Amino acid sequence: MLSKFFKKRRLQIFAPVNGEVLPLEHVPDPVFSEKMMGEGIAIMPAEGSIHSPIAGTVILVAETKHAIGIRSHDGTEILIHIGLETVSLKGKGFTVHVKMGDSVSVGQLLIDVDWGHVRDHAKSTITAIAITNSGEREIHFEQVKESIMGETILMTVFPK
């Protein structure tokens, strides 16, 4: 019975969108590939909107609607950055369904994305999922090539 109290708690991070899973190092932007924002993973979206990969609280909604931050109940902070150089779209192609301070659950709709608009007007649709406080966490990456939103586990995070 006491062993339950001493087991490390873990946080499973689910895919926020359907697509091809790639190492963060493959993102053609040094901010992500060199892990300046933290450890993580990337998805080349195939279809669909962006959904919450964890249960937690929305802590950031970019003014330009291209990025969202969520803090889990254990304090893990996740940034989902949709596409590359999408700040230049000034919010066009994105419809946000949550606001800062909202509680969200796994699979909850966060942002609708017009992937055609992003593809036509930004550098890439590749979407980075970074753990911005990864220095305080131990992260295990799942060996998956394709993601299904809300079903595929991308990473498991443990406190250090």
Automatic annotation (TrEMBL):
<dbReference type="InterPro" id="IPR011055">
    <property type="entry name" value="Dup_hybrid_motif"/>
</dbReference>
<keyword id="KW-0808">Transferase</keyword>
<keyword id="KW-0762">Sugar transport</keyword>
<keyword id="KW-0813">Transport</keyword>
<dbReference type="InterPro" id="IPR001127">
    <property type="entry name" value="PTS_EIIA_1_perm"/>
</dbReference>
<keyword id="KW-0598">Phosphotransferase system</keyword>
<dbReference type="Pfam" id="PF00358">
    <property type="entry name" value="PTS_EIIA_1"/>
</dbReference>
<dbReference type="InterPro" id="IPR050890">
    <property type="entry name" value="PTS_EIIA_component"/>
</dbReference>
<protein>
    <submittedName>
        <fullName>PTS glucose transporter subunit IIA</fullName>
    </submittedName>
</protein>
<feature type="domain" description="PTS EIIA type-1">
    <location>
        <begin position="29"/>
        <end position="133"/>
    </location>
</feature>
<keyword id="KW-0418">Kinase</keyword>
